[in-house]
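#struct-queue
[09:14] JT: dropping the first one here, sequence first, then the structure tokens:
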Amino acid sequence: MIVVLPVVLVVVLLGRPSHHVYSYTITKGTAAAVAAGNAVENQLPSELKVRVGDTLEVTNNDVATHTYTFLVLRPGETGRYTFKRTGIFEATCTVQGHETVIITVT
């Protein structure tokens, strides 16, 4: 009986789903480029497909506050959001290129 318990625990732990962290960075100079009317390469996706338990992480290296999805980030901040339920959600993005972000959580 003692020998079976560790084997069962190993099987249970190995069978657990792994969660992903989706990391993005808002680069320095983004707000200045937008204000000057220049195109900005937006690394932030306009559509994001994740699973329950996955985490979104965004770092703002710019000098202005930016919003991406559920995160409002002041200069130098990193924000994290872990998805806790399924659904399709609409969020915002203040970085040029798209204003709406669609998040599908399965």
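[09:21] JT: and here's the second one, same format:
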Amino acid sequence: MKVKLADILKDIRTEQVQGSINLDLSGLTFDSRKVLPDFLFIAVKGTLSDGHDYVDNAISAGAVAVVCEKWPLQLSAEVTYIRVADSAKALAELASSYYGHPSRKFRLVGITGTNGKTTTITLLHRLFTLLGYKSGCFTTIRNYIGNETVEATHTTPDPVQLNRIMKDMADAGCQYAFMEVSSHSLVQQRVAGLYFAGGIFSNITHDHLDYHKTFDEYLRAKKLFFDNMPAGSFSLINADDRNGRVMIQNTKSAVSYFGVRSMADFKCRIIESHFNGMLLNIDHVEIWTRFIGEFNASNLLAVYACARLLGQDKEEILRVLSTLDTVEGRFQYLQSDKGVTAVVDYAHTPDAILNVLRTINQIRKGDEQVITVIGAGGNRDKTKRPVMAKVAAEMSDLLILTADNPRNEDPVEIINDMKAGLDSKMLEKTIIQPDRRDALKTACLLAQKGDIILVAGKGHETYQEIKGIKHHFSDFEELASLFHLQPNTPN
């Protein structure tokens, strides 16, 4: 598709332009390796490299215009240069403009927070599909245009990919779209230029401090989403998280609250909880759901409240909510023929682990053992490792520390970081097994009838990343295979 450079420059603030803007563009990118003839190249400073170092490569590949924060040492007379204050923001705004501002062609709702994003967005997409609407969604697991799957590589895609997919959503007739908005994407301006009809705040706990450095910085990153929410939109805030009110201090949006434990505009109460579901009272109506735990009650309430704010009928929302299944890798459970229950969950923060184990301990009937298998991701926030292990040990009868996605770190060193959070009493009930497959086998061999195994950290993932290579590995598949074995039968 051809777009005039002059037309899309109207949507950004420029500091200086050198060269003609009466150019036909065939595409735009921030990756010099993806430049084709008649492309616009946006030089963006990244965490690992600086696009300004690749301007010459982009021009050699066919770029006819360059957006940058500083002029190159040599300017080509055949290239148009546009200087801006923030090229990352300009990239997002130009991508939106290039693809015809697709986010304005349907009602877009984003969610930000530490936990619950994938479940909430996935359920919103399923709910609106069953209500008869065509909708799109962006999640950590995968993206959808209607019922068509588009594989996900990041929680929030880069601005070019994001707007290209949104254009496909608009062209396909989507009336709604739902997306996870990560803290990284907010700081990196990936969602600048998008028009949100609404935003949801789930919660904020200890995570991503490898990137944001301090909790205050992480909090500020999340707050950016609501600071930039346009007038006429809504912000739906979790009243059970004390940081919720911080989020909306500077917002122009209309604010509503949802809560399980607090006074709120939208309320939910758990009446009964079992491994196969919960009986909830949502907005004074009782419904049976196939979800477990207070954290999932909060997620379901957010889905209900968002749908109400989008104008959907209360009775229809509740009817459909009662039919929905759990989300892949989020409190997925299976049982062996000897009566052992295993739960697979993506919990990889101290708060998420606390929530899942609290739920398991509330549901178990008596003296069943809770066996937790857990690791921590390599090349990520190291400060949460000892806290995660401590929480898991406090709420489990037996703890097995193992590898998660070690990436480029030594799994044993990661486990040692986790062990640092355990006292001598906790260490007495801890087993160290760096090989994740062997850790799962150990848990299954030690479990007796009625015991509950929690396998935390990887959830829906079907790989284990070791030294830059992704090897096929699924916690759910491994457990399903082990549960079909006879007790004590070697694999």
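[09:30] RK: nice, looked through the second one.
[09:31] RK: The first strand starts at residue 3 and ends at 4.
[09:31] JT: good to know. The chain has a mean pLDDT of 92.
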